[in-house]
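debug: dumping io for the single-chain case to check the tokenizer round-trip. Nothing else runs in this session.
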Amino acid sequence: MMSRMGYCNEWVSIIMKCVRSVTYSVHLNGRDGEEFRPQRGLRQGDPLSPYLFLICAEGFSRLISKAKVEGRLKGTKVGRGNVAVSHLFFADDSMMFGDASTEGASNMNAIIKEYELVSGQLVNFDKSLIYFSKNVDSEIRDQVGGWYLGSEGF
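debug: decoded output
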């Protein structure tokens, strides 16, 4: 992710050494278990973690903004000026806005898959929801919701 955002390769290498150098052991029944290295994710309490999280969020934001510029994602127009909002982030929650169509859902899914590929993070679709405007026909809701998340939309 950092390389694709233009960070110097040497800097990325130093940061990755810090992230990958961590080991854990489990203390069980009064004994320490063997050390092991985590396969993915950032360690809690590491002073670098919040900054790396923000870098990942910025990378995701850039992917979404690029898709918007390319016309693959339209967002939702809000307010009197009809500003198109394509996404909002808060802490570790993300909201994406787009067309209620299989094409819109396919484009959104492609953006998420690209983010997963670049960042190494995986979106938990079991914790994901789709909300539709009350103006969206129920047939389209079922079609898009079922296709995108494998469940009905809300």
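debug: round-trip ok. The beta strands are 27-28, 31-32, 76-78, 83-85, 87-90, 93-96.
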